[in-house]
User: Fold UDP-N-acetyl-alpha-D-muramoyl-L-alanyl-L-glutamate epimerase from Dactylosporangium fulvum.
Amino acid sequence: MNGREQVETLRFPGREFDPVTGVARFHYALGDLVLTETVDFGPPSVIHPALDRVLDLLHVAASTSYYKIAAPPRVELGFPLAEKALPWVTALFREGLGEFAYRNDLPYVLDLPIVPGPFAEPPAEIHEPSGPPLSAVGGGKDSIVSMEALQYGELDPVLFAVNPNAIIRSVMAVSPQPVRTVRRTLDPRMRELNAAGAYNGHIPVTAINSLIAVATSLMHGLGPVVMSNESSASVPNLSWLGRDINHQWSKGLPAEAHLRDALLAHAGLQEAYFSLLRGLSELHIAALFAKFTTYDAVVTSCNAAFKQRDASERWCGHCPKCRFVFLALAPFTGRERLVGIFGTDIFTDLSQLEGYRELMGLTAHKPFECVGEIEESLVALRLLAEHPDWRDAPIVRALADEVVATSGRLADDAEVDAAFRGDAPNLVPARYLAALRKLGEPR
Assistant:
């Protein structure tokens, strides 16, 4: 198979797991081509009875990396899966690959047929993980707030990352909590196929990493997997052919609910996975992060920085993510601290104005990036327009003038208050919400 050769079906030839080494191998077939992904969990401490079925779900989630090579018009599972897990599988492909479909003009992906294998018997038992939580760390402000909340709540988290680079390791090193990491390796032929013209694009990677985390928790007698996805992750970027296209679909509340349902239906795991920050806005999280200065020298959310081999340049200063995080933190850190974090003052660079206009909803659509809602950006602008450190910054002045000229006003008090209410729909257990509240009021 070379380039975009026509393939009719993605199939699942099988998988293996070595309980001694903790190495799992997942096989995928596109026509005659069989590709293998390897996930090295390291030697398990225990083998939980639900582990095998969690690996079934991971087998499905990781397949999206291989589906996109040829984007076949059909997916055949071919192995037993609980019937009530199929809504998650369907959403994983049709919605989780929505941006991929949009960018490659593949509308059939939005209605992709999923052919199930035989339905699996219901799990023999229902388990609710009860050990210390496994807290996923991405290196940015969100996961740092979760780490701190879990520690404030005396929940003794274990920190977790898949393929952590120097940036993530440096963030985890600030915390006194123990760390577990996993190595995920794509089939090495992927690069050759991409170079030959295979399809490429965004996949629901958070779904993959989430299931790797759940499996890791089971292998070490740990508690629920705690993610740090906020309320705005559920908001789509645009509508295409009558469907919502969301860059952050696998971070959103519908995806979280689907995966929890699949874990319960297929693996018998209850309350095994949730996002601690789901009820909060990006601005609310930024205000909470501003309470902690110990991460200033290591925090980053810039995707360009994550592609580097080291952590020498943590922010590119020119991408949508850098622009949004700078905007979100500015009202709560002040100029000197924020410029120290980023190494530059983005609000003095008028070449960034068009990017900020996108964030404010003044042009195009919200960028295909992990950024907050347009309404949050407008609230941040209102706070900055009143902030002595920022109100005269060129970007702030230009944006405030344009927003007032377009809509007649900046965000009002009710809109500002709504951004910090912290009551968006969520699936967070009560004792974890209590831990989050211990961080105090955001402003």
